[in-house]
Amino acid sequence: MSLAGISTEFLKVSSPDPHVALVEILRCWTDLAHVFDKISHEPTVRVVVLASALPKLFSAGIDLSALGGLSHDLSDEPARRALQLRDQVLSFQNCISAIERCPYPVIVAAHGIAYGLSIDIMAACDVRYAASNSVFSIKEVDVGLAADIGTLARLPKIAGNHSLMHELAYTAREFSAAEAEKLGFVSRVVQGGRDDVLAAALQTARLISEKSPIAVLGSKHLLLHARDHTVQENLDYTATWNSAMLQTADMQDLLKSVKTKARPQFAPLGKLPSKL
């Protein structure tokens, strides 16, 4: 399957460089699970860049009219109604978590307005860049909600400034790209707008795509494991993981490339299991 064949009505998928997948959000975000789960099984992909196709904004967040429709056709009985609403929230969470469970690194390039849902999406990515014209907001409290599809679960594991993180979550105030960098939410602020930050993200993606796909995939897998486990648990798990991965042919290819001074050509990963 070509990457273009993964595209949906609202998400455009392309390959601007070998082994790089570019996912551009046109409007609706609920296709993210479909698209990223498909990309996860593409053996030629080594890194993904996620951006908005819209020139002036990344995302303004969930449509309020759609939010109001969540309770449509639900049971009048409180317990059953709660179960139905919970199922809807879990479905939304699954859409965003598809980015994180993708075995390949995901670099997000944000620009312009990036409210609410934008934070959920970005927090699920591995590397976060922002254009200098970006304006962020953890917007959910302004519509009477605690953020429930990723921000409050992931941001505390990301942010280096927890006082600022709490302030932003409680107030829903706007914050700039510079403040997002201060928070530790983004690692780079790129001067300009969409095209500039996308170019920077693609440049990093090209660099990653030239590395051993076994090493890069393993690094993401082990970093996520480390986030959710103790140091000793991760060390033990890494020993087991690398007892298999150290047998990769990629190491021999790298050693040969050093001698020949040629860029190593790594074999495709092949079909990956649904869960590592």
TrEMBL record:
- Any one Pfam family here would be ECH_1
Question: CDD domains, alphabetically?
Answer: crotonase-like
UniProt xrefs under SUPFAM superfamilies: ClpP/crotonase
Going by the entry's taxonomy, the superkingdom of the source organism is recorded as: Eukaryota
State the InterPro entries in the record.
Answer: ClpP/crotonase-like_dom_sf, Ech1-like, Enoyl-CoA_hydra/iso, Enoyl-CoA_hydra_C
Per UniProt, the keywords (alphabetical) are:
Fatty acid metabolism, Isomerase, Lipid metabolism
Q: In which pathway does it act?
A: Lipid metabolism; fatty acid beta-oxidation
Protein's UniProt keywords contain NADP: no
* Similarity section: Belongs to the enoyl-CoA hydratase/isomerase family.
Kindly provide the name given to this protein in its UniProt entry: ClpP/crotonase-like domain-containing protein
